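[Automated response] Your request has been received and processed.

Submitted sequence:
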Amino acid sequence: MKKENTEVRYDIVSNEWIIISPKRGARPNNFQEARDCPFCDLKDQEKPKFYFYKGKESNGKKWTTVVIPNKYPVFNLENKNKKIKDGVYSKIIGKGHHDLIITKEHDKFLSQLEDTRSEEVFTCIQKLINSYKDNNFVKQVAIFHNKGEKSGASQPHPHYQVMTLPIIEREFKTELESFNKFYKKNKKCLYCEINKRELKEKERIVLENEHFIAFCPFAPKVGFQVVISPKRHNPNFEKITEEEKKSLSKIFKKMLYKYDNILKEKNYNFFIHTAPLNKEYPYFHWYMVFYPRSSSLGGLEMGFRIEISQAMPEEQAKILREGK
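Generated structure:
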């Protein structure tokens, strides 16, 4: 049987890369079929990379958080990164890492656990990013979580994904260009200026602590979208301090609680945008973004990439801010 590799194909019309990963179709979906949870018992999974138990790295006899290679990865390390061009068509045979961070409890998300458990997840992300840095095939690191079937999750057991990409995808490349353009013109960081504006006006702020602010963006892509931004300028998530990590864990847990209990939202994604690993990006500012998935995309959103939000972000921030 011919082995099917993941291919990253270039759409010359839209100027974006599309990932085609046949192996991903073999993933079991526990939302649709009654199965034993593959993350409660790890015996059929790949060998864990490391474990944490109550905030400290452990030997795995007891664990509260574990990192394993994805059994159904988008990219793997067996391939050689190879670019192929054939007339108007171009593709990359993808090579990379695809890891899962799994918390112990089957039916509890981080909003229901103590702050230290969020710290464990963020420490795992730090360790993974640092472990990727010596790989010259890594350009961008995608860090994300899918909660609920509508968000793209195939397993109800809470898990968080960290995946390397052999390219910098179009939307993030555009974002980097915007940061760079603003920095060259103003000699200032774009997100540092956004932070100042939000803190001054307050009307879109949802939460704030010593090191972070959470706010509904001025031009949201979806309703009740929220950004968590560090107050200290820092392009790289993996360079946060231990003190910042504690603050992040607290504001992150409170934000998840608001989604779970105020909005009663069962489906959402969150992502961490951090600087690519291929070079230094001093003008960038890492941040986290939450996307509720309460509504489906329509023709305008899908066909023309113009998002429609049905309420003002200032009103949405007020609902989240004042909800208990």
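Summary generated for your ticket: The CA atoms of residues 206 and 322 lie 8 Å apart. The longest strand covers residues 140-147.
If you did not submit this request, please reply to this message.
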